[in-house]
Amino acid sequence: MRTRAVRRGRPLELTELGLGAAQLGNLYRETTDAETVATVEAAWEAGIRYFDTAPHYGVGLSERRLGAQLAARPRDEYVLSTKVGRLLVPSPDTADERDAHGFDVPADPVRAWDFSRDGILRSVEQSLERLGLDRIDILYLHDPDDHFAQASTEGIGALIELRDQGVVAAVGAGMNDAAPLAELIRRADVDVVMCAGRYTLLDDRAAAELLPLALDRGVGVVIAGVYNSGLLSTARPAPNATFDYLPASPEIRARAERAADIAEAHGVTLPDAALAYVRRHPAVVSVVVGARGRDQVEQNAQRARTVVPEALWADLAAAGIIPADTFSKESS
């Protein structure tokens, strides 16, 4: 699988397709140990060498599982990112409850927002222990929307300190909103950012400011949420498909249906086009897609290998699905 370079910080090569490990933390339902093994094995066999996790995913379960599966892999052959901002705190009083944030795990430990220097250092230490690693390649501030003042000063300062000490190779933030990511790039010496759901076939808000700014500053952009939580994940939008984790509106569904028609006319599927579209932008260094089990990983890898005709983009632009000026700003 081809790689792209994160050019700031210490040089890193990210595979164009990365594995998002939220499902290893029992996102929405239990992921069995066998599924966990199969997921990482299939990703490695497909050539994926970028893996993304977070303490938030299953309150540490994703980190523990991913670390265990990568333990026997050559450490210099893969890139791993995790996140800070949600410190995990023991909560024995809630151990008989289920997690309230979408993960099928006990509510012990629980998350506590903390973008202070001390909180970040403790979070990194705990992540290293759960992962069983002696270093992390990329650290992201995780969803600092409501804590941006502290995260964009003290928080990112702590990450830069860790980078300067050689503890990590690159630092940045991961968010669902493109505007704060652009502001962080303007304010701080970041290397890479992760933008979820704001640069897709149906939502290109990141293209207005974030992507041009990142390209100008040499900051790599990792795209997540490329299927917009489900609407773009199947060849034809499912009747109960969601968009940004809510039921898709009739207007959004109609755009997705039209995009699917155009993709089929060019011999590819809607998910093929969704993955290929975001990789066309020169600021994008990787696309992270979550998966559970061998079949989903292999399906995503096959989609990433699919050659999409250039004429597809012109037809999507003519239909108003993507911007008409996309060709002057992006490269294949």
Automatic annotation (TrEMBL):
Superkingdom, taxonomy of origin: Bacteria
Database matches in InterPro entries: AKR (IPR020471), NAD(P)_OxRdtase_dom_sf (IPR036812), NADP_OxRdtase_dom (IPR023210)
Pfam families: Aldo_ket_red
Entry's Gene Ontology cellular component terms: cytosol
Coiled coil: none
Domain NADP-dependent oxidoreductase as annotated: residue spans: 16-316
Entry GO MF terms: oxidoreductase activity
PANTHER family in UniProt: GH17980P-RELATED
Official protein name in the record: D-threo-aldose 1-dehydrogenase
